[in-house]
């Protein structure tokens, strides 16, 4: 077996989580990340025949039975993941129609997957149904986006259009827009199912008064989506109380999407 601490998927995950903390997105134990892995990526680093523990998931996901995931632990502080990844991360394989998680590595202090595991796994399922390349679901608490959910309406078309107008980059990065869930209790199957439903039409799902979920084909894509949306929210908060003299028009936005080949969310431009 090779040393899992040198596995590209582990190194990249730890680096990304550390960067999320540095961005101020993940205070204390805020945030969680899951990465879907193929068996070929993991089998040189862990004995896939040796299940250390089985943990009930509390939901079903038969489509993902037998699939491998690297997942942050419940209670993990993103600030600390880099120092003890074997405690704050776990490598899991779903079994029994998704009702059981088989632990193959990690959670060494006896812990388990994030409280938002349902939102993660069900969102993976949703994203894969529309994009077979999707590998990452990422949740965090970026202050600007959260602040925006207090002062901007939560209609997702309007919320997206405001973000798109805040800088040219937004239409390039997320032409599919941002979906929005009204405040719901976190850590439940209900918010997991609602998030997964929203993930069918966009890679970003805002949780009002809480944070955001991003999805992507790799860690950089999911991170970059959240980074760009939060920057746009920051610009919004800087100008929302000032008289606006000019802005990006729908025509400008259409021009950007056309030039960069983005598929704009149907009906979200006038
Ligand atoms: O894991 O972010 O939503 C802590 C959270 C819960
Ligand atoms: Zn959260």
Summarize the structure.
This protein is an alpha+beta fold and 270 residues long. 39% of the residues lie in helices and 18% in strands. The chain has two domains: 1-115, Class II aldolase/adducin N-terminal domain (L-fuculose-1-phosphate Aldolase); 139-270, Class II aldolase/adducin N-terminal domain (L-fuculose-1-phosphate Aldolase, 3-Layer(aba) Sandwich).
Percent of residues in β-strands: 15-25%
Structural class: alpha+beta
Structural Rg: 19 Å
> What profile does the largest beta sheet have?
9 strands, mixed
What number of structural domains do the residues give?
Answer: 2
Mean pLDDT: 98
CATH homologous superfamily placement of the largest domain: Class II aldolase/adducin N-terminal domain
By CATH, the topology of the largest domain is L-fuculose-1-phosphate Aldolase
| Level-1 CATH class name of the largest domain | Alpha Beta
Poorly predicted tracts of residues: none
Q: Largest sheet, order of strands side by side? A: 2-5-4-3-1-6-9-8-7
Q: Give the ordered list of helices and strands.
A: HEHEEHEEHEHHHEHEEHH
Helix percent band? 25-40%
Distance between the termini: 57 Å
| Ligand types | Dihydroxyacetone, zinc ion
Structural write-up:
The protein is α+β, with helices and mostly antiparallel strands. The chain has 2 domains: 1-115, L-fuculose-1-phosphate Aldolase (3-Layer(aba) Sandwich); 139-270, Class II aldolase/adducin N-terminal domain (L-fuculose-1-phosphate Aldolase), CATH 3.40.225. The protein is built from 10 helices and 9 strands. A 9-stranded mixed beta sheet has the order 2-5-4-3-1-6-9-8-7, with helices on both faces. The longest helix is centred in the C-terminal third of the chain and has 21 residues, at 219-239. Zinc ion is lined by residues 30, 139, 141, 186, 210-211.
């Amino acid at each position: 077996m090779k040393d899992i601490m040198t596995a590209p998927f582990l190194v990249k995950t730890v680096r990304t989580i550390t960067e999320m903390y540095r961005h101020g997105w993940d205070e204390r134990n805020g945030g969680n990340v899951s990465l879907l892995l193929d068996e070929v990526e993991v089998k040189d680093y862990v004995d896939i025949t040796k299940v250390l523990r089985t943990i009930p998931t509390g939901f079903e996901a038969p489509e993902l039975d037998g699939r491998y995931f690297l997942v942050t632990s419940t209670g993990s502080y993103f600030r600390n993941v880099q120092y003890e990844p074997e405690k704050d991360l776990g490598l899991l394989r779903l079994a029994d129609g998704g009702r059981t998680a088989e632990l193959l590595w990690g959670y060494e202090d006896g812990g388990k997957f994030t409280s938002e595991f349902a939102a993660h796994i069900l969102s993976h399922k949703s994203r894969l149904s529309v994009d077979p390349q999707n590998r990452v679901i990422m949740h965090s608490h970026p202050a600007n986006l959260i602040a925006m959910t207090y002062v901007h309406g939560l209609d997702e078309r309007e919320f997206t259009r405001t973000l798109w107008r805040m800088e040219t980059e937004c239409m390039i990065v997320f032409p599919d827009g941002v979906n929005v869930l009204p405040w719901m209790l976190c850590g439940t199957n209900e918010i997991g199912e609602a998030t997964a439903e929203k993930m069918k039409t966009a890679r970003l799902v805002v949780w009002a008064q809480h944070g955001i979920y991003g999805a992507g084909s790799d860690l950089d894509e999911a991170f970059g989506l959240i980074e760009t949306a939060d920057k746009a929210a920051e610009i919004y908060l800087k100008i929302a109380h000032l008289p606006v003299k000019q802005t990006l028009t729908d025509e400008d936005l259409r021009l950007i999407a056309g030039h960069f080949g983005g598929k704009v969310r149907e009906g979200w431009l006038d």
